[in-house]
Design a protein that fits this description.
- The chain is mainly α.
- It is elongated.
Amino acid sequence: MNMTFFAMLQWPEILGILIVVLILFGAKKLPELARGLGQGIKEFKRATRDVQDDLQRAIDDTDYTPPPSTTQSSSPVEQPVPSSDSSASTEASRAAFHEGNDGNPKD
């Protein structure tokens, strides 16, 4: 509904609505309805205040430490250079694999 609709309500319209509510719910139920409505509004206000407090605490949190930066060191990491003996044996095993000989004796 538009807020302009509620802005146009005058005392006679408000009084008519209250009389209709009184007839529909009865005099005994009105205090219970009003109490429930009041508790609902109070809970809503408390929940919104809690959310605002949590957000404010998160904003004001001074214990924040940024993650460490991932910069490269000035000295590069040295890779081990294989010796000539191991490279020759690696090449031989590759050749044997491609030929179908895995180096194991067959029965």
